[in-house]
Write a structure and sequence with these properties.
It is a single chain. This protein is α+β, with helices and mostly antiparallel strands. The protein has one domain: 3-Layer(aba) Sandwich (Beta-lactamase). The protein contains 9 helices and 9 strands. A 5-stranded antiparallel sheet has the order 2-1-9-8-7, sandwiched between helices. A hairpin with a 6-residue loop joins strand 1 and strand 2. Helix 3 crosses helix 7. The longest helix has 26 residues. The radius of gyration is 23 Å and the shape is globular. The N terminus is likely disordered.
Length: 279
């Protein structure tokens, strides 16, 4: 066989390099978001909740107020107490005028699990206060449990100073940390159910008072599950899960300026990416 001429080797190398370069450019185009999401929210992450693979991130470790996304941590701590079927008597310190509220009155008696449901679906601040007081005895003790749980989950850029998500010194988290929290929360049935249920009726244990609890977020969006939050400092915040063809993605956004449309477009981008490899 005659020897391969040096010029032929050079030509082959150029061609192979060109093909590789085209492949790399194509792969980069496939992974590039269709547009910038910086005008939609201050901080964003899009995650495969099964594998933990990060599909998109924007200021993921920036510390920001999380508003009522805090209530997901409150629910996790309440679940760890193992008292979901216990009866909670509402005291005057749990009654709140800070909207939204369920409308609890002193002396009402409800199951802890129903209060958690109302706290997550309606984002009811009176239900949230009742949960914190029932589990912790007082709110500072309950908040200490929240911060211990955050540390156990590896939420190194988070600190909570109240149970319901009100703005205040030392109350902050990040999109990346909240995604860790959300992945843990979605493994709990009561949290997953509350985030995907549009309406539920609960009552006091004696049946004397009944409450219709609506998750209005699901009326406004096409998402499978959602928990929203808003304060004047936090802006609009969101934890959402969307599912298509047996695949689910988790989105966390803080200080949204264009919450629904931005979230829809980011989910669309995520579902166009190849699925994460199985672990």
């Amino acid at each position: 066989m005659p020897p391969i001429k040096p010029i032929l080797l050079v030509w082959c190398a150029i061609m192979m390099g060109g093909i590789t370069g085209v492949a790399l450019v194509w792969a980069a185009d496939q992974a590039r978001p269709p547009r910038s999401f910086s005008d939609d929210a201050t901080a964003l992450v899009l995650v495969d909740p099964t594998t933990g693979r990060m599909l998109f991130e924007q200021a993921p470790h920036r510390r920001l107020p999380p508003a009522s996304l805090t209530k997901v941590m409150t629910a996790l701590v309440a679940l760890e107490s193992g008292r979901m079927v216990s009866t909670v008597t509402i005291g005057p310190e749990a009654v709140s005028r800070q909207s939204p509220v369920l409308g609890l009155q002193p002396g009402d008696r409800l199951q802890l699990g129903d209060l958690v449901l109302a706290m997550l679906m309606r984002s009811a601040n009176d239900a949230c206060r009742a949960v914190a007081l029932a589990v912790g005895g007082n709110e500072p003790a309950f908040v200490e449990l929240m911060n211990r749980k955050a540390a156990a989950l590896g939420m190194t850029d988070s600190h909570f100073s109240n149970a319901c998500g009100f703005d205040g010194p030392g109350h902050y988290s990040t999109a990346a940390d909240l995604a860790r929290m959300a992945r843990a929360a979605l493994a709990e049935n009561i949290i997953a159910i509350s985030m995907r249920t549009a309406e539920r009726e609960i009552s006091t244990v004696d049946g004397a008072r009944r409450f219709t609890v609506r998750n209005h977020t699901l009326d406004e969006t096409p998402f499978t599950m959602a928990k929203t939050g808003f304060t004047s400092q936090a802006g609009h915040c969101l934890i959402a899960v969307d599912s298509r063809e047996g695949r689910s993605l988790l989105l966390v956004g803080l200080n949204f300026h264009r919450r629904w449309q931005g979230a829809v477009e980011l989910f669309q981008y995520g579902f166009e990416l190849p699925p994460s490899p199985a672990r």
